[in-house]
């Protein structure tokens, strides 16, 4: 009964915390609410008219929604780069940032699930995935594996920080014997969610563009570059606008992780380009379409070459210590890298896999305004959720939010 009483108090205090703040905070939350409403309107149009209002077709059946899903799986997995040093290696420099990273993982995973629902057309078809009611098809379908690992990782990233914050809210020290095993499991689970997502694509033999042994490792490398890059930007905003002062040393250590991951990602990109173009076969047509265009079709050319240019520039900046330790330069490089990997793992990965079609026909894909509206709405929802989680966690971590007996 006492724990239930404390939990009710935590919910009440958290609600008071997230519904009050500075003028900038209120404007930010109001802006996110407006964008979410626009996204809901676009989604209502999709529910009424079906997926015909999107740019997808029977030729290109995955588009902006699955592109964002794939990218956000990596953002969620990147939390492991803070969890492992903090809970497993006992590096105190990461301790300040770990709960922020896990909050970002929760928001990213909720967005992942939202993008899947949007891509399925609507929530009414989700019953097909419920074991015993629908046809879950486990373990034969890789999609069912993806459902399990994503929801399992979401549970871990909610339960571990909740336990830690719940104890600190009461003024108690969290018991490492309870949360450390879960943290170790989350490290392994983070790798699993990205590998399983990569296996989803690799297992489709009819799509040679994805049938690449490097896809899984490259997913991880790009995730450990883009995810921590976003974490650095979020930490910079938090230490500027809140009382939670993140040490520069912590940001510099995360920047080192981003630099190494970005370098590995570039090396793997070069390896893939060599494989596709040194001894090309008819299976290289998707790559030719992406990088050089095919039969006069070149909708993705500006996207992919912009992404590669940004990726190279960001990696070069991060490679040099003096540049990396200059905060303004670091933030610029993180923005470049984040956007570059979003393009590369989005349009640069998903769409070319469908082009050309089985009979050689090229049908290009561009998202419609409805798709863009739904996508921006889901991103706003993720930012809204993260802001709520971060504001509450910061108040508890700083000692300003405590249980009043």
TrEMBL record:
The places in or outside the cell where this protein is found are: Cell membrane
Keywords, A to Z, come to: Cell membrane, Membrane, Transmembrane, Transmembrane helix
Q: Where is the signal peptide?
A: none
**Pfam families per the UniProt record, alphabetical:** NrfD
Topology versus the membrane: Multi-pass membrane protein
The record's listing under InterPro entries reads:
DsrP-like, NrfD-like
Transmembrane regions? 27-46, 66-85, 97-118, 147-166, 178-201, 221-242, 254-274, 300-318, 330-355, 375-394
- Protein family (similarity comment): Belongs to the NrfD family.
Name under which the protein is recorded: Polysulfide reductase NrfD
UniProt source species = Algibacter agarivorans
Its ancestry begins with:
Bacteria, Pseudomonadati, Bacteroidota, Flavobacteriia, Flavobacteriales
């Amino acid at each position: 009964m006492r724990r239930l009483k404390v939990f009710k108090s935590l919910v009440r205090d958290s609600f008071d915390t997230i519904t009050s703040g500075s003028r900038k905070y209120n404007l930010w939350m109001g802006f996110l609410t407006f964008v979410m409403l626009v996204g809901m309107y676009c989604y209502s149009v999709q529910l009424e008219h079906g997926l015909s209002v999107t740019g997808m077709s029977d030729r290109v059946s995955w588009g902006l929604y699955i592109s964002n899903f794939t990218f956000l799986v990596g953002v969620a997995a990147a939390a492991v780069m803070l969890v492992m040093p903090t809970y497993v290696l006992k590096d105190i420099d990461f301790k300040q940032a770990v709960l922020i990273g896990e909050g970002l993982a929760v928001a990213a995973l909720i967005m992942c699930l939202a993008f899947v629902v949007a891509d399925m057309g609507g929530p009414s078809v989700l019953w097909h995935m419920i074991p015993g009611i629908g046809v879950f098809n486990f373990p034969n379908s890789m999609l069912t594996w993806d459902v399990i690992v994503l929801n399992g990782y979401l549970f871990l990233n909610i339960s571990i920080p909740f336990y830690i914050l719940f104890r600190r809210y009461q003024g108690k020290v969290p018991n490492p014997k309870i949360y450390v095993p879960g943290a170790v499991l989350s490290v392994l689970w983070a790798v699993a969610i990205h590998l399983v997502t990569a296996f989803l694509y690799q297992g489709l033999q009819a799509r040679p563009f994805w049938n690449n042994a490097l896809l899984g490792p490259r997913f991880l490398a790009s995730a450990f570059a883009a995810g921590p890059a976003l974490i650095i930007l979020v930490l910079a905003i938090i230490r500027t606008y809140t009382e939670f002062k993140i040490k520069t040393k912590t940001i510099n250590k995360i920047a080192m992780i981003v630099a190494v991951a970005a370098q590995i990602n570039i090396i793997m990109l070069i390896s893939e380009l060599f494989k596709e173009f040194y001894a090309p076969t008819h299976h290289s047509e998707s790559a030719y379409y992406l990088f050089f265009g095919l039969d006069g079709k070149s909708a993705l050319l500006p996207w992919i070459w912009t992404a590669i240019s940004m990726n190279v520039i960001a990696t070069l900046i991060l490679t040099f210590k003096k540049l990396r330790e200059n905060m303004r330069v670091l933030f610029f490089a993180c923005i470049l890298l984040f956007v570059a990997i979003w393009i590369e793992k989005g349009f640069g990965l998903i769409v070319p896999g469908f082009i050309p079609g089985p009979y050689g026909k090229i049908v290009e894909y561009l998202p419609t305004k409805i798709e863009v509206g739904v996508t921006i709405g889901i991103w706003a929802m993720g930012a809204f959720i993260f802001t709520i989680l971060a504001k509450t966690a910061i108040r508890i971590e700083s000692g300003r939010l405590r249980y009043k007996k």
